[in-house]
Specification:
single chain, alpha+beta, nine-stranded mixed sheet, five-stranded mixed sheet, 34% helix, elongated
């Protein structure tokens, strides 16, 4: 039997760090949350090489007393809670007491701090979890924490870090959420000596302008209302202002950024009748509710929360946003007529868009159960009003979701090989090699060509056949690395957010191989200078919107994956149409190509030809049984 060992603090801190300190952005998140909890209204974030080399957070908060500095680096040491009862009423962003100890165990960290009550500051240094002695230092009130050489003593973790630019993008995303969620705090974010964001702590509108710009504010409604004891405040996109993915959706619960399915479903359902396929609403919402009805201690990274009553949260959000979008009279009390609505005031909006001034609620079927109460799916309500305030079809359980990371590169390559082998197998199975010459019988219904090989008949869809021929011809140019490009008269500039920038910057080589000359163009922007000639009429805005519509789906993006839909659309537009009368030359060309493989399918999966055997025809006329 193996001996049971009690792990030393050095070992279990490093194990805990694996969950708390995932990447450089995790360090920034934890340290800034501490600054906010300390009451700071001015926070400076400085990073170098994507935070891998250095992260420095400086604030003007309450500070840490010199005698407490060493204790701050110990595991499970926190000033946020002291009793078990405090866990039921958490108002701070941090509370577990794991962050500083975990960070200190995988980096070289220096903490300098001075409370207002002290005349001089205190300083402490830790190297890979080895804590040094406290010394004096001169500084203003507040705290400054510097984290150097992150993961220097955990090479396995360091090996899995992304490029400095990608890590910087993750940090930028985190900082943007801090700015939006804390508009009363002034933030300055500097990466490699360059200021990326600077907010001034002067309100929600200013924070929005800092992250998204004034143009975005003009495309939103600013709402500020209370519903069922829940305060809902922030910006929601107007009906036409949508995005291609969910990275433009931001929600804060009591100042904490969260990703929660109940909240997401409520907002998505409110927008559902206004959205096109693969389009998502834009919103930045701050929701305030009593701490006793929300549990923030359900996710390792505190990204999700659990509500004591999902129905109230869902119904409140759905009701408020539906009323604004539907233009009900109550929207006048929801949409704030302040400077934050700069292009349309709420009164004009409601007057011009009034659809239904009655109570807006999801249209669901409810029915009384045997107990006289009302039921929807498996949920029982006391009355029909309660039932109709909800739509649970899109809500699953609210257990914390665990991210599933992709397997290693070898596994992904194996999947790609299997996918390609499956395609080749399908093509081989569908191949119908014709060894005899075709006899062209004629064109029927201005759509189908009828061929006879002496034994069987073939009905050929002229559009599908020509579409496939064109598609294969265009595809062959990529296999031969022959792509002719044409420069754009005016370069197309694509503005993106941090997550989209990180994704596209890793795919530049792929786009260039496609003939789309893509290059970085300043902060969170790309420039397209040329496109392939066969895509001369492409709508670049729609093209990139499609590419960015599901970032996770394109993580293992290949040229064929990205181009297949566009090539198919191009071939479809250029191909002979159903109803076209074909010339003899066109017919001969199609037949010559189809001799090689009449079992092909068009790029959209429809068959090019259908074979009718002599046996089938004989059965029609009862010649054989």
């Amino acid at each position: 039997m193996s001996k049971i060992n009690l792990l030393s603090s050095k070992i279990y801190n490093r194990i805990a760090a694996g969950e708390v300190v995932e990447r450089p952005f995790s360090v920034v998140k934890e340290l800034v949350e501490n600054s906010i909890d300390a009451g700071a209204n001015n926070i400076v974030i400085e990073i170098e090489e994507g935070g891998i080399s250095s992260i420095k957070i400086t604030d003007n908060g309450s500070g840490i007393e010199k005698s407490e500095l060493k204790k701050a680096l110990l595991p499970h040491a926190t000033s946020k809670i002291s009793t078990l009862k405090d866990l039921d009423n958490i108002a701070s962003l941090g509370f577990r007491g794991e962050a500083l100890a975990s960070i200190a165990s995988v980096s070289k960290i220096t903490i300098e701090s001075k409370p207002q009550s002290q005349s001089i500051g205190g300083k402490i240094y830790a190297d890979g979890g080895e804590i040094g002695e406290i010394t004096d230092c001169g500084m203003t009130d507040g705290t400054s924490i510097t984290v150097n050489n992150l993961f220097f003593n955990t090479p396995v973790r360091e090996k899995f870090l992304k490029t400095p630019r990608s890590e910087e993008g993750e940090i930028s995303s985190v900082v943007s959420k801090f700015i939006l969620g804390n508009p009363q705090i002034a933030f300055k974010y500097v990466a490699d000596g360059k200021t990326i964001y600077q907010s001034y702590g002067d309100g929600f509108e200013s924070a929005m302008a800092c992250i998204y710009g004034i143009d975005t504010i003009n495309e939103c409604f600013f709402i500020d209302t209370d519903k069922n004891g829940i305060k809902i405040k922030g910006y929601i996109g107007k009906h036409h202002f949508t995005k291609g993915n969910r990275t433009y959706q931001t929600v804060f619960i009591n100042g904490r950024y969260i990703v929660n399915q109940t909240v997401s479903a409520a907002i998505s359902n409110a927008y559902s009748s206004y959205l096109m396929k693969r389009q998502y609403p834009f919103y930045v919402l701050s929701i305030s509710l009593p701490t006793e009805i929300v549990d923030v201690n359900v996710h390792p990274n505190k990204l999700d929360v659990r509500f004591s009553n999902n129905q109230i949260i869902y119904g409140s959000l759905y009701s408020v946003i539906s009323k604004v979008l539907d233009g009900s009279s109550e929207a006048l009390n929801i949409v704030t007529k302040t400077q934050e609505i700069t292009s349309n005031n709420s009164s004009n909006y409601v007057t011009q868009n009034k659809i239904n001034i009655q109570e807006i609620s999801p249209k669901i079927n409810t029915y009384p159960n045997t107990s006289g109460k009302y039921q929807f799916d498996s949920i029982v309500f006391n009355d029909v009003a309660s039932a109709k305030s909800l739509k649970f079809s899109e809500i699953k359980d609210d257990e914390p979701k665990i991210d599933i990371f992709a397997e290693n590169k070898a596994f992904l390559e194996k999947l790609d090989r299997e996918k390609q082998e499956a395609k080749e197998k399908e093509a081989a199975q569908s191949a119908i090699k014709i060894e005899r010459d075709f006899n062209y019988i004629g064109q029927v219904l201005k759509t189908y060509l009828i061929l006879d090989d002496g034994l069987d008949l073939y009905f050929v869809d002229q559009h599908a056949a020509h579409e496939r021929i064109l598609f294969d011809k265009i595809n062959a140019s990529y296999k031969d690395n022959v792509v002719v490009t044409q420069p754009l008269l005016l370069p197309y500039v694509l503005n993106v957010n941090n997550e989209e920038y990180d994704f596209l910057s890793q795919k530049i080589e792929i786009f260039n191989k496609m003939g789309i000359e893509l290059a970085e163009f300043g902060k969170n922007a790309f420039k397209v200078s040329a496109i392939p000639t066969f895509l001369a009429d492409i709508n670049l805005e729609k093209f990139f919107s499609s590419v960015l519509s599901d970032l996770n789906a394109f993580k293992t993006l290949s040229i064929n994956d990205l181009l297949e839909e566009k090539l198919a659309q191009k071939a479809c537009k250029a191909a002979i149409k159903s109803g076209d009368k074909l010339t003899e030359i066109q017919i001969k060309t199609l037949i010559d190509v189809l001799k090689e493989n009449i079992g092909l399918k068009c790029p959209h999966g429809r068959p090019v030809a259908v074979k009718i055997t002599r046996t089938e025809i004989d059965k029609w006329f009862k010649r054989i049984l």
